Amino acid sequence: MPGRVRQWPWDEYPQKNINDEDFRKAKEAIIREHGAEALRKSWIEVCGRLSLITEDISVNGNKLIPIVPADIVLEEGFSPEVEQRIRETGCVVVRGVIPEPTARQLYSDLKQYVSDNRSQIKGWPEESPSMLQLYNSPTQHAVRSHPNQLRLQCLLNELWHDHTERTSSEPLVYLDGVRDRPPQQPFLGLGPHVDAGSLSRWLDPAYRRSYSAVFGGKSGEWDCWDLSVRQDAVQDLFKAPAHSSVFRAFQGWTALTPSGPHRGSILLYPNVSAVMAYVLLRPFFCPPEDPMEVMDASKWSFDETGCSFPGTMKDQSQRLSRTSHPHLRLEECLVHVPEIMPGDTVWWHSDVCHAVDPEHEGSENASVVYVAACPTTPTTKEYVKQQLADTLAGFQPKDANGDLKESMLAGYQGHASLSEEARKAFGYYL
Ligand SMILES: [Fe+2]
C-alpha cells in the first residue's frame, strides 16, 4: 500500500495491570472527577468519529497532509483552507523554508563539523549513531535562526489561542539534536508514539485539566488548540531524556537532504483531536474477550478498579500499537510524509502520533535538523533563559543531559552570526 510501512516492525503493548501508585492515582482522580458515565460517553463518541476518520485516511493516505510553499505562506499566511486542514490533521509540510542550495551547503558544513569532531560527538543508537547529541553546531544555528524559519514558527504558534493572554506567538528557540542517517540501516527505535510526556497527561493536574472536555463526556468539543490551560501542563513530571521541558506547539524538522517514503523519512497520523482523545480514554476500558467484537466500542467494559495503561511508560513517550489501540487502525493510517527536498520542513502538533521511518532504502544519508515551533510561555521563557546561559558557558542544554562542552569543538562558532531578531528568539532579551 503506497505511503504505509510494508512490514509492521514495532512492539505491541498488551493489556496488563500495572502495580504502581502513580498510575492508580491518575486513574482514580479522573474517575472521581468526571465519573464513569462521562468517560463512557466520550469513548463511544470518539470511537464512532474514528471509524469515519480512519476510513478517510485509509483511502486518501498522505494526500491528506497539507503541503504549502514557504514563499506564499510567509507572504500571505495560511489560507483558510490550509488552516482548516492543519487543524484537522495536526500536520503540515512547508516547502522551501531554507533555499535548497543553502540547505545543501549547510549539510556539507555539518558533515565536515561532525567528521572534525567525531570522537567527541555521541549518537544514538550506539551501534549505528544517527541521532547526534549535538545542539550548537553552526549548521543547526543557521537553520534555527533563518528569518523564514522564525516567521513561519510565529504563524504556526498563532494557530493556538490563549484567553489568559499570558503567552504570545513570538517564537522561542528550543535547542534539539540533529539526525544524519545512513542508507540501508533499519531503525526500529521510535515506533508510533506521541511526545510531550506520557503518564503526565493523566497525572499532572494542569495537564489533565487541558483535556477535561475529553474526560468529561464532551470529547467532540475538546479544543486541541487551546493554550490557556495547556501552557501550565508539566510534561516532564518524570524526568527522562524522552520528555522535553518546554511546550512545543509543533514539533518539526527541517530537511538537509532529500528523503521520501521508505527512504529514512517520518510517518505521521494525520489527525489530532480524535486520536489523542482515544489515547486518553483507552486506560479506562477493557477490550471484549471475543476478538471479533473488538472494533465494537460498546462491547468494551469500563475498568473501574483495574489499572492498565497500554503503551504508557513513565520514562518514555506515549507509545501506541495495533493491538492496544485497535480503533486507530495504525497500519492503514500511519502514513509517510511525501518526498522531501533540502530546505523543506515538516511540522506536527504536539499531540500527533508519529514514527521514524523504519526503512531507509535510498542511496544518500537522510539528514534533518529538529526545529520546533515554541510560543513564548512562562515555562518556556524560564527554560530558554537557562538554555542561553548554558550555551554562553559552552555547554549543552539541560534537556540534552549531556556532558560535552561544545564550545571546545573544532569549528564552534556559538552565536556569532545571529541577527537581532534571532537573538530575541534565542532568549537574549528575556
Ligand atoms: Fe517523537
UniProtKB/TrEMBL annotation:
Matching InterPro entries: Gig2-like, IPNS-like_sf
Top-level taxon of origin: Eukaryota
Name of protein: DUF1479-domain-containing protein
Matches recorded under PANTHER family: DUF1479 DOMAIN PROTEIN (AFU_ORTHOLOGUE AFUA_5G09280), UNCHARACTERIZED PROTEIN YBIU-RELATED
Pfam family, one: Gig2-like
